[in-house]
Amino acid sequence: MSKKYDIYGIGNALVDIVTEVSDDFLEENNVEKGLMTLIEEDRQNELYNVISSHESNKQCGGSAANSIIAVSQFGGKSFYSCKVANDEQGHFYMSDLRSNGVDSNLTEDNLPEGITGKCLVMTTPDASRTMNTFLGITQTYSVAQLDVEALISSKYLYIEGYLVTSENGVEAMKTAKQLAIENDVKVALTFSDPSMVKYFKSQMEEVVGNGVDLLFCNEEEAMLFTEMDNIVDAREELKKFAKRFAITLGANGATIFDGDTFIDIEPYKVEAIDTNGAGDLFAGAFMFGVTNGHTYAEAGKIASLASSKVVTKYGPRLESQQAKDILNELFDR
After folding, report:
1. What pairs with residue 255 in β-bridges?
2. From the CA atom positions of the chain, what is the Rg in Å?
3. What would the pLDDT profile of 24-66 be if each residue is shown by its tens digit?
4. 115: buried, middle or exposed (CB in 10 Å: 19+, 13-18, 0-12)?
5. What's the mean pLDDT in 208-234?
6. Residue 88 belongs to a domain with what CATH number?
7. For 10, what's the count of Cα atoms within 13 Å in the CB-facing half-sphere?
8. Higher pLDDT residue, 16 or 183?
9. Which residues constitute the domain of residue 199?
10. Are 71 and 287 in contact (CB under 8 A)?
């Protein structure tokens, strides 16, 4: 049976406000560098007021949203289930999703009262990205946001690891996973951030359960989850939890397990200025590849080249034309 969507994603809906700051700024404002930190609204407003003099850009985001939009940009068909509020940022979010060709559960008349989540993405000159996130209404993301019809009409369910921070989020992850399994939809999961594996290990293990079809993580997350002190042992241990997986290795490319063998994905050497969204884009480009007739090795090349492009610019997203150019470059279309 043909599926309507390549990827059905669930995750936190956050309006990303991306700006460049100095290391001194982070130190002066007691911001822990290189991590995603959950903060309260008043703290975010305080930081936002300080950086309001900096140049910044705004777009709909959240880890899974970035991946889902990438699928669409490469020519795939995607759906995103999320939760925003009936405020200016919520309407902006819904509009931005649509303009990127992504279907969603959001409509003009179903947005609840509340405050849409926002993420301050602060990039330093060494290309490190630091995120301070106020979840807002997405903290109450639950099974109510799942669109069962869209989910079972998809080739893959893609679960964002950041949802493990709330009980209702974990329940939504597990419910979506079970629905996928019952309806012959493959399950993909991203660990999202080392802090999710470190501080919410038991919840993440609960979601992984008997395993997933496809897992995305970086080197640090792989070692934290498997409790191994080196990547060689960690990737062997990951086979117990995922049929297939991709481990991103930063400037060293990635390693992919296709169910039988490990495939080393060579990096594309570039001068990185902003690593924000590189992992999200890798996952989105890779999922586009494996759901649109490409081998795991080919999907890895698409993902690696896409990631190398996005780190040379500010923000977590490519332009649609850049995605098309990547496919043309790799496959001489």
Report:
1. 247, 264
2. 18
3. 999 999 999 988 888 999 999 899 888 877 777 888 999 999 9
4. middle
5. 97
6. 3.40.1190.20
7. 32
8. 183
9. 5-331
10. yes
Q: Which two tokens stand for residue 240?
A: 């117990």
SS3 162: helix
Mean pLDDT of the chain: 93
**Token pair of 251 as six digits:** 């400037």
Residues 6 or more apart from 45 whose CB is under 8 A from it? none
pLDDT in tens, 276-333: 678 999 999 999 999 999 999 999 999 999 999 988 887 778 888 999 999 999 997 5
3-state secondary structure of 218: strand
CB 316 within 8 A of CB 61: yes
Q: Which two tokens stand for residue 138?
A: 């997405």
Give, for 38, the enclosing helix (H) or strand (E): strand 36-38
Quick one: average pLDDT of 172-188?
A: 98
Strand, coil or helix: what is 119? strand
Are 251 and 290 a contacting pair, CB within 8 Å? Answer: no
CA separation, residue 44 to residues 41, 136, 238 (Å):
5, 11, 36
Tally of structural domains, the chain = 1
- The answer to whether the CB of 151 falls within 8 A of the CB of 3 is no
8: tokens are 């059905």
